[in-house]
Structures are given as C-alpha cells and as structure tokens.
Amino acid sequence: MKGRILFIAGLGVGYVLGTRAGRERYEQIAAVAGRLWGSPAVQKQVEHVEEFVRDKAPDVAEFAGETVKKVVGAATGRGSTAAARSAAAKKAAATRRANAARSQSDD
User: Fold this and answer.
1) Residue 99: CA atoms inside 13 Å, Cβ hemisphere, count?
2) In whole angstroms, what is the distance from residue 43 CA to residue 83 CA?
3) Interior CA angle at 89 toward 96 and 75, to 5°?
4) Integer distance in angstroms from the first to the last C-alpha of the chain?
5) d(C-alpha 27, C-alpha 33), whole Å
6) 69, 83 in Cβ contact below 8 A?
7) Alpha helices of 19-39 — where are they, by DSSP H?
8) d(CA 87, CA 79)
9) Residue 79: what pLDDT?
C-alpha cells in the first residue's frame, strides 16, 4: 500500500514538473491536490500516522541506541555488559519521555 501511494505521488509530481500544458493546468492540479490533502478522510489518516509515530518513537530510539552500543562494543572488542546494566534505566527514561510527549500533545 505504501509503495502504491508513493508511486502515485511520484507520477503526480512527474506530471506536474514535466507537463507542457502550462500554468493553468498546473493550477488545476495544485487545487485538486490541496482539496485532497485537506479532505477529512486524508487528515484522519494523517492523525493516525502521527499518533502511531508518537507511540513508537521511544521504542525505535531505544532499539537504535542498543544496536549502536552492540555494534560499537563488537568493533572495540568490549562486551555488552555496560549496555545490559543501563538498559532498564534507558527504558524507563524512554517511557518518561513518551508520557511527557503524550501529555503535551493532549494539551
């Protein structure tokens, strides 16, 4: 689904940039795109995606941080004991950040 949306968006952008129909056709396309973007159905999906990203961002950050530590530990020859000791503290910090972000977005 994501690939199809990106493909259609790419077609639209390519057509707008490559068209020889002139400014009038560009204005028509831009107006349709603006109405589409502003439609309640599209905005509802945008809100769902924003909420999903807010919910998953701390998990992604934690995963990325742990992965970087493992890679650096493997590259330097050090074990991942330091990462294991601080994993609980980092998870708690990520949870606090996520809760703070949620409470800010609720305001």
Assistant:
1) 6
2) 40
3) 125
4) 33
5) 10
6) yes
7) 23-38
8) 14
9) 56
Count of all residues that appear for the chain in the document: 107
Query: In the numeric block, which tokens belong to residue 100?
Result: 């703070």
Structure token digits, residue 51: 């909420």
Q: Which residue has the tokens 């493997």?
A: 74
**What is the pLDDT tens value at each position of the chain, 107 positions in all?**
677 877 888 888 777 777 666 778 788 888 999 999 999 999 999 999 999 999 999 998 899 999 998 888 888 876 555 555 567 777 878 888 888 777 776 65
Output the DSSP codes for 33-84: HHHHHHSHHHHHHHHHHHHHHHHHHHHHHHHHHHHHHHHHHHHHT--SHHHH
Q: In this predicted structure, what is the pLDDT of residue 98? A: 82
CB contact at 8 A, 84 and 56: no
Q: Does the pTM of the predicted model rise above 0.70?
A: no
